[in-house]
Design brief:
This protein has about 350 residues and is α+β, with helices and mostly antiparallel strands. Helix content is about 35%, strand content about 25%. It has 10 helices and 14 strands. The strands form 3 sheets. Strands 3-4-2-1-14-13 form a 6-stranded mixed sheet. The chain has a 6-stranded mixed sheet with strand order 5-6-7-10-12-11. Helix 6 runs parallel beside helix 7.
């Protein structure tokens, strides 16, 4: 009896990784082909989407000249600078509109805001965190209405910070924080609504006058194994966005100037500022501070490090800034019972 040979397929029906990648590539090629086919030979691709193109150019212009937008009209300039990184969200929105309108003009115009945004914030997208360092610091606006101050204290102490700053402390909550942090931090001082907890001795402790009429800033010297470091803790006044008054920040701006003057007059060469500044590094109203100190997040962080509001962070208003020290890494800590995220950084204490 004649025997018949059967051949069995052995390539799994083309379901391997290489085959899947090939199918995806094929789909993309067909999709691009269909899109381009609809555009080829259409002279209107240059005349359509002029409104989208104009909006793209306006977006680029706003980002380019944000520092020149005046503050005299409701502090519009500071409001724009506070949320400046979010203007980049409009680029993909306009990109979709350009494809829907099948407008080559709009697509080309979109290159300008994309390049401007990358020039402003592209450096923050990468991971600049490193290893080493010899001093870990953290700061947290704990929220005056915090329902679990003890839990919040334990959470931020778990960060491993050698020096910890807390803002928005209430008279009733202070004993709770002191008790919860006593086992980790031998030294501490509370001045008004801000406090500093340290594993190293604190000297030269004093309130800092930021022109409020009550205490929301302080200074102390921590004697670290690498030498003395001056610490500032500050909670600048809140800002408000009102329909009639705009971005009301006059008192915040006045306090920022006073804080900057105090830091500049400090004889120590190594200084760290911890606190809720109610403003971002882009806000020109904080220039008295930001012009003389480096942002730990900007120098050694990963991403934007947004800290507020905790439920959906949109801006980094909680800052760690240094002078005379080298930031090594910077990060945000897990959410607590506060409406802010705690932030932390590790720095190298360099020789004065």
């Amino acid at each position: 009896m004649a025997q018949q040979a059967y051949v069995t397929e052995t390539d799994n029906g083309g379901s391997g990784p290489e085959s899947r990648r090939a199918r995806i590539r094929s789909l993309l090629v067909r999709l691009v082909g269909r899109l381009s086919a609809g555009w080829r030979g259409d002279p209107r691709i240059w005349r359509r989407g002029l409104v989208v193109a104009a909006l793209a150019l306006l977006l680029a212009l706003v980002m380019l000249v944000h520092a020149r937008i005046p503050n005299r009209f409701g502090n519009l300039g500071s409001l724009m600078e506070t949320f400046l990184p979010w203007l980049g969200v409009l680029v993909p929105v306009f990109l979709v509109l350009a494809f829907v309108r099948r407008s080559a003009t709009a697509l080309i115009a979109l290159l300008l805001p994309a390049v401007v945004w990358l020039n402003l914030f592209g450096g923050l997208l990468g991971d600049k965190t490193g290893g080493g360092g010899d001093l870990t610091v953290a700061t947290h606006n704990v929220n005056a209405d915090n329902a679990d101050p003890a839990g919040t204290a334990h959470d931020v102490a778990a960060s491993g910070a050698d020096v910890l700053a807390l803002e928005e402390l209430t008279e009733t909550a202070v004993p709770v924080y002191e008790k919860a942090l006593a086992a980790t931090y031998r030294y501490h001082s509370v001045q008004g609504t801000v406090g500093l907890w340290s594993k190293y001795p604190l000297t030269d402790i004093a309130a800092v006058d930021i022109k409020l009429g009550w205490v929301r800033a302080m200074r102390a010297t921590a004697t670290t194994p690498e030498g003395p470091v001056g610490f500032y803790v500050a909670h600048l006044p809140s800002v408000r966005v009102k329909l009639q008054a705009g971005f009301t920040a006059h008192q915040r701006d006045k306090s920022a100037d006073a804080l900057g003057e105090a830091i500049a007059a400090d004889p120590l060469s190594r200084k760290i500022l911890l606190g809720d500044l109610n403003g971002t590094m882009n806000d020109r109203s904080l220039n008295a501070v930001t012009s003389q100190m480096r942002s730990a997040q900007g120098a050694a962080g990963s991403g934007f490090g947004f800290s507020w509001p905790a439920s959906f962070p949109m801006a980094r208003i909680d800052q760690i800034m240094v002078t005379g020290l080298e930031p090594v890494t910077s990060w945000t800590l897990p959410r607590t019972s506060s409406d802010h995220l705690p932030v932390a950084a590790r720095v190298k204490v360099t020789t004065p």
